[in-house]
Amino acid sequence: MKQTLEIVKKIAIEAGHFQLKRLGHIKSISYKGRMNLVTDVDKASEDIIFRRLSRHFPDYKVLSEEAGGSYRISSQPKWVIDPLDGTTNYAHGFPVFSVSIALEKSGSIVLGVVYDPTRNELFSAAKDMGAFCNNKRIKVSSVKLIEKSLLATGFPYKFGKDMQRNVENFKNFMMRAQAVRRAGSAALDLCYVAYGRFEGFWEQDLHAWDTPAGAIIVKEAGGVLSNFKGEPFNHYKKEIVASNSRIHSAMLKILSKTA
Predict the structure, then answer these.
(1) Is the N or C terminus of the chain more exposed, i.e. has fewer CB atoms within 10 Å?
(2) Dihedral, CA of residue 66, residue 69, residue 73 and residue 76, to nearest 10
(3) Contacts of 97 (CB under 8 A, 6+ apart)
(4) 128 — phi, psi (to 5°)?
(5) Which parts of the chain have pLDDT scores under 70?
C-alpha cells in the first residue's frame, strides 16, 4: 500500500501543477446545470490522472466526476476521482481547489490523496497508516465545545427543499459555533478537519467522488464520520458529518432540527 500511495501522490501533484499553470487561462466552460459548471481543465486533469493510473494499475476500475463509471461495489479495486474539486472557484480565479484521488476495495476506502496546488499542501492517508500533510503526521483538534469550534460546510447546486434545509442548518450552526466557513472544496474542508484547522464539517447532496479521499484522511487523523443521523458514513450516500469526534454529538443534535 505504501508504494501505491507514493505513486498516487506523484500523480496528484502532476495534475495540480497543471491546474496551477492553467489558472486564469481557461479555454472553455460548459454547464451541467444552472450552477454546476465544468471547464476544459477539469477534463484535461482527469485525462492526466487516468493515463498515469492506467499505466501503473491497468486492471483497476474507475469512477470519476467527468467520465462517470460504475457505482456498483465489487471485489475489483476502484479509483474514485474528482480531478478538480472546486471548479467554480477555479473558474473565477479563487484559489481554493484541489485534486482528489481515493482507492476503494470491496466498498471501503483504503487510500486517499488530496493535493492543494495553490498552497503546495499534499494530504494523504492509507488504512491503518495515519494521516499526513507534506509527509508530516497530522491529527484532529482537541476542542471540546461547539461554541469554540470553527466549522465548514458546502451548499448543494440543487434548489428547493435541499437548499432550504442547508440554509436552516447553516443558520443553526452560526448561532452555536464560533464561526462557519463555506470555501467550496469538500475535499479540502475534510483535510482541514484532519489537520485541526476545522473542528467539523457537514454537507448534503454530495456525489461519490466528493468525499472518499478526504474521509479516510479524517479517519486516520483520529476524526469521526457519519451521516446526519449518526449512521456510518458511506461515500455512495449523499450526506456527511465529519468532526474531531469531541463535537460530533453536538453537530448531530443541531442537524436533527431540520430532519
Answers:
(1) C
(2) -110
(3) 19, 84, 85, 86, 87, 89, 90, 116, 117, 118, 184, 185, 188
(4) 65, 20
(5) 27-38, 68-72, 158-162
